[in-house]
Design goal:
With 189 residues, the protein is mainly α. 74% of the residues lie in helices and 0% in strands. The protein has helices at 10-18, 23-44, 47-64, 74-107, 117-135, 139-149, 155-162, 166-184. Helix 1 packs across helix 2 (23-44) and helix 7 packs across helix 8.
Length: 189
């Protein structure tokens, strides 16, 4: 196998990468990781999340082989993917924070008083209602929503863990939430 040149064009490096020469990924990473990280940091405003997202973008780029160098510049493609995933992370973070705030408001921050029997019965009833509604979703919808809300896993990570395209995970999550809203009606706040 011929050695990959650091002077090769993006298109040549992508061809080499798809031919199994992983050295090409290292060169592309060196070439574009600064761009991806800077954009991710600008959106997320957290260095550790920006680093994680940079790794995620390049890992997905390597695994999925969706990019066509004849249709766009690699820098543009990576920027669009980074921006999209960073915004997804922000939305997930925001959703998670809203859920925590609601929980804290309902239970009182740092409250150590156990719930009254009436509160416990109400919570148990709500949990059972939710469990029944979740059981009416498709397996993928239920699994994705449980991973996202109960385990706090991002949609991108769910896609990776389940081996699904991110768009499929998002569609299943959206359809599942709409179905839950329909099933639960006024039971959700």
């Amino acid at each position: 196998m011929a050695r990959v040149s650091t002077d090769a064009s993006d298109a040549e490096l992508i061809c080499s990468l798809r031919a199994g020469q992983q050295e090409a990924l290292r060169i592309l990473y060196e070439r574009y990781s600064g761009l991806v990280y800077t954009l991710a940091l600008r959106i997320l405003n957290q260095p550790s999340e920006a680093e994680d997202l940079t790794q995620e973008v390049f890992l997905n780029f390597w695994q999925q082989e969706k990019f066509d160098p004849e249709r766009a510049a690699l820098s543009t493609y990576l920027s669009v993917i980074t921006r999209s995933r960073a915004i997804n992370k922000l939305e997930s973070r925001s959703s998670h924070q809203r859920s925590l705030r609601r929980l804290q408001q309902n239970r009182g921050v740092g409250e150590s008083i156990p719930p009254t029997p009436l509160e416990q019965a109400s919570l148990t009833e709500q949990e059972e209602t939710l469990r029944q509604a979740l059981s009416q979703l498709t397996e993928n919808q239920r699994k994705i929503l449980e991973m996202n809300f109960y385990q706090g896993i991002s949609q991108a990570e769910i896609a990776h863990q389940l081996g699904m395209p991110l768009g499929t995970v998002k569609t299943n999550a959206r359809k599942g939430l709409l179905k839950l809203r329909e099933l639960l009606g006024d039971a959700v706040g």
